[in-house]
Design a protein that fits this description.
This protein has 508 residues and is an alpha/beta fold. It is 41% helix and 12% strand. Helix 12 packs across helix 14 and helix 12 packs across helix 17. The C terminus is likely disordered.
Length: 508
């Protein structure tokens, strides 16, 4: 088993492992034990996995559906939204430490039906609210590329687990960049599907007005395409009439037709936030534009035609409003009064601001989503895709972006009656925008418009940390975007050894 783990298990993506199982070159049990050994070895250092389900996984591995696509390949789910009946789901919060879903999430059900075996759950920031994964209730995941650095968020545990060689793919979610940001920081492929493509049923119809979508972080494009083919399609109660699509994997082997592609440094999205691009990010975007031109695509400079300030304000207004509702839901579920919930100071402060938003403010913010979607629809009448940064810099250091103690004390003042409303009127939303989005202002656009978007691992900075490049596609054209990604993957041969064990396990 150790020999398989060292010499074979981590060399393969999920489809490669599934093929070995189908050919009986290795058993499902051996692959599972290799995954468990990888987690046991690496997780004490990487802290990617918050809990395992070893006995359940072993049992489920032996009862896979006949002919299942992934044939018993191990995976991890995210400790957020992806409920497993009767098992803990904390949303990264101490407030939900004793909460257990009463039914499986549809993504969990469909993933199992596809042959994936869920061996545990990955770390997320409290309620998935940050672009870093540093919850106070759990150890903080470490970027496998370098000790002391963050894998990003909110799917930071998922990215650390895949880059760290624990599993070939991990289920993840994206409400404002939470798949693409960790994929960028960890040198992986991260695909955010179009709105409604992967349902959130049965617990939810939509989250954040449809901005949240779930899928996975993977090493290869084909794994992402194969999983999406297996899990896509509306739920019976779904709010969007998105029918099940096939042909994702088959299309990857077909030549990608010449496309007209715009590339941008995303200035309209970042200008009002004071964002400063690392020159390595600029180089990565320009390198990608040159690569696409060399592959025969028509590439030209063109910024996305949206108002970045309005986009940020709109996104954060919905973010605040939904958090206020979420905290009341937690209070109802746990029977703990809102004031006594064991939540982080930043979460409590943002929730207090959200509770003071009026219905008309919330609705006005939501209406801008359609404005942005209409602007991008017209943009895509000329361009098939848009290339721009995922983040303004490489991965931050752990603790670098988390609110300081002084800032948390300032946030505590929002408990004083009347202060939250005054704070909003005094421009607190703008301050939040700068704090929350200045490093990652490029990813929220696709969530608000519903477009598919992905992070491609095309560059490594001189510092040795990876830089992902984002490609946004036309609404609903997920398969075309996957086809383009596969062509770029083949051209650049980015499936290379990952930085697993980039620092020794005993380094802590």
């Amino acid at each position: 088993m150790v020999a398989m783990y060292l010499d074979e298990y981590q060399q393969h993506d999920a489809m490669g492992l599934a093929e070995l199982i189908r050919r009986r070159q290795v058993s499902r049990g051996e692959v599972l034990e290799a995954a468990l050994a990888a987690i046991e070895q690496s997780n004490p250092v990487l802290h990617a996995v918050v809990r395992t389900r070893i006995d359940q996984a072993r049992q489920e591995s032996q009862h896979q559906p006949e002919g299942a696509y992934f044939a018993g390949v191990p995976t991890l789910s995210k400790d957020l939204l992806m409920g497993i009946k009767g098992e803990p789901l904390t949303f990264g919060s101490a407030a939900l430490s004793q909460w257990y879903p009463t039914e499986d999430a549809l993504l969990i059900e469909r993933s199992r039906r596809a042959g994936l075996v869920i061996v545990g759950q990955t770390a997320t920031p409290e309620l998935g609210l940050m672009g870093i994964t540093e919850p106070k209730a759990f150890p903080h995941p470490v970027n496998p590329w370098r000790a002391g650095y963050s894998p990003g968020g909110s799917s930071g545990g998922a990215a650390a687990a895949v880059a760290g060689g624990m599993v070939p793919l991990a289920l993840a979610g994206d409400g404002g960049g939470s798949i693409r940001i960790p994929a960028s920081y960890c040198g992986l492929f991260g695909f955010k599907p179009s709105r409604g493509r992967v349902p959130l049923a049965p617990a939810h119809g939509e989250i954040w007005q449809g901005a949240v979508i779930e899928h996975a972080i993977t090493r290869s494009v084909r794994d992402s395409a194969a999983l999406l083919e297996q899990v896509n399609g509306m739920a019976p109660s779904g709010p969007y009439p998105v029918l099940h699509e096939t042909g994702y994997v088959a299309l990857l082997s077909s030549p990608c037709p010449p496309l007209r592609i715009a590339f941008s440094l995303g200035e309209p999205l970042s200008r009002g936030l004071g964002t400063q691009l690392n020159p390595e990010v600029t180089a990565a975007v320009e390198k990608t534009a040159n690569l696409l031109a060399a592959m025969g695509h028509e590439v030209e400079w063109c910024d996305p035609p949206v108002d970045g300030d309005a986009l940020a304000d709109s996104y954060l207004t919905l973010y605040l409003g939904h958090l206020a509702a979420d905290l009341r839901w937690i209070s109802q579920q746990t029977g703990v009064p809102l004031k006594r919930l064991s939540i982080e100071p930043a979460t409590r402060a943002i929730g207090r601001l959200g509770a003071k938003l009026s219905a008309w403010e919330y609705e006005t913010a939501k209406r801008y989503w359609h404005t942005a979607a209409e602007q991008m629809s017209r943009f895509h009448q000329r361009y098939d895709a848009l290339v721009m940064p995922v983040a303004a810099d490489t991965a931050p250091k752990l603790g670098e972006l988390y609110p300081t103690v002084a800032r948390e004390r300032l946030m505590a003042l929002l408990a004083i009656p009347g202060v939250p409303k005054l704070a909003l009127e005094a421009g607190m939303l703008k301050r939040l925008a700068v704090d929350a989005l200045s490093r990652t202002p490029f990813t929220q656009l696709a969530n608000l418009t519903g477009q598919p978007a992905m992070s491609l691992p095309l560059h490594v900075a001189s510092s040795g940390l990876p830089v992902g490049v984002q490609v946004v596609g036309r609404l609903g054209e997920d398969k075309r975007l996957m086809q383009l990604a596969a062509a770029m993957e083949q051209h650049e041969n980015w499936q290379k050894p990952l930085p697993r064990q980039a620092f020794p396990p005993q380094a802590g």
